[in-house]
Design goal:
Elements lengths: L2 H43 L6 H17 L4 H23 L9 E5 L4 H12 L3 E5 L7 H5 L4 E4 L3 H11 L8 E4 L5 H10 L4 E6 L12 E8 L1 H13 L3 E4 L2 H29 L3 H6 L3 H14 L3 H8 L3 H15 L2 H6 L2 H15 L2 H19 L1
Helix pairs in contact: 1-3, 2-3, 6-7, 9-11, 9-13
Length: about 375
């Protein structure tokens, strides 16, 4: 077969592939129209964007179908998760313009801060009446609180309880009082004491740089009259967030590990690299993907506001006590290093691995996925 014939056959096959690609895009467009119909129903009945059970069932079916057709099921799963996420983001953007409680007034206390501005955008775009109370506005606090349906407190942790106490006498009895502080027990108690109306605590587990609330977690800690805060929960769900209910004390105990310990350990890693004056960019030339991923999390921390992390780390005596225990735990390993005791290291390693149990397999799968995506990108 000469080169001309080969080229003609290739062109014919490429043309057929192009036709199929066109059909794929057309099918995605047709799917998008059906999703928009679903979105209109969700918008009408205030239903959440994210439906975990349906998505996981869909993924399982498509994985099996892909395997039957000779595809790698992981490839099929990644493809459909991308399609589903795009669908959720599109729905969230449209639902963000729909108020669950039309005409309601929202007062953002500390609304000029980063998280305050973030929520200002979401409430405003949904059509709520949004106003802001800052330090220089306290001479107008009574007028700002008048005819308000939701007061959302987002000020530094050390100021939260004081601000709540000062707000209490000015709030309409029926107004919902909420906060977005990263600790919950003390602020929730302060709200219950300062206001006799409905109260709920919120903790968004994401930062103001998040462009979408799609699958972002917001912890809710019940306070008083939970039925009066349901519209706010529904609004957060409509924006794509996943709300998780927790007791305030339980929340604070878990966050000591999830936030304070994690951030402090990352700070310690970055601080040691600084003290050693490590050439970061040179180290990346020799790095494994997992080192790049870990260093990325360290660099991410130091690219943000130190005041935010200081608030989280030093928020309570309990957190500081735990972090001292963490440092003490590290110093316990000095003898192990001095003796270069590999056998003891192995025994300790195995004990800890047994404690992690099946989570180790899950962690391997998830971290391998992240490493693969990092390799693809960089």
């Amino acid at each position: 077969m000469n080169n001309n014939n080969i080229e003609r056959e290739l062109e014919e096959l490429r043309y057929r592939i192009d036709v199929l690609d066109d059909r794929l895009v057309s099918l995605l467009a047709e799917r998008k129209k059906l999703v928009e119909e679903v979105m209109q129903l969700k918008k009408k009945y205030h239903l959440p964007v994210y439906h975990p059970a349906r998505e996981e069932n869909l993924i399982s079916r498509r994985r099996q179908q892909g395997s039957d057709e000779g595809f790698d099921p992981d490839f099929i799963e990644e493809l459909f998760r991308l399609i589903l996420r795009q669908s959720r983001v599109s729905q969230s953007r449209q639902l963000s313009r729909k108020a669950v409680k039309p005409g309601a007034g929202v007062l953002l206390v500390g609304g000029s801060g980063e998280m305050g501005r973030y929520f200002h955008h979401w409430f405003r775009d949904a059509g709520y009446r949004v106003s802001v109370l800052e330090r220089h506005d306290w001479d107008r606090v009574e007028s700002l609180c008048r005819n308000i349906d939701l007061v959302l407190v987002g000020v530094p942790i050390e100021k939260t309880e004081e601000v709540i106490r000062n707000l209490g006498p000015c709030l309409p009895p029926e107004a919902l009082l909420a906060d977005i502080t990263s600790i919950k027990e003390a602020p929730l108690q302060a709200m219950l004491e300062a206001h006799q109306g409905p109260v709920v605590g919120l903790h968004p587990l994401f930062g103001p740089g998040t462009s979408t609330m799609d699958k972002q977690i917001i912890v809710t800690t019940p306070g008083r009259m939970p039925e009066k805060s349901q519209w706010l929960i529904e609004q957060l769900n409509a924006w794509g967030a996943i709300t998780v209910t927790a007791d305030a004390r339980e929340h604070d105990e878990i966050m000591t590990y999830v936030q304070a310990l994690r951030h402090f350990a990352t700070f310690g890693f970055g601080r040691f690299l600084y003290q050693q004056q490590v050439d970061i960019f040179k180290s990346l030339e020799f790095s494994s993907p997992i080192y790049r991923l870990e260093l990325g999390m360290v660099g991410r921390l130091f690219a943000q506001d130190p005041g935010l992390y200081a608030e989280i780390i030093f928020a309570t005596p309990e957190r500081r006590k735990l972090l001292k225990s963490y440092i003490a735990s590290l110093t316990e390993q000095l003898d192990l290093l001095d003796k270069a005791d590999k056998e003891e290291f192995t025994r300790e390693f195995d004990r800890i691995a047994a404690w992690f149990g099946t989570f180790g397999d899950q962690a391997m799968r998830e971290s391998s996925y992240l490493i693969d995506k990092l390799i693809e990108r960089f």
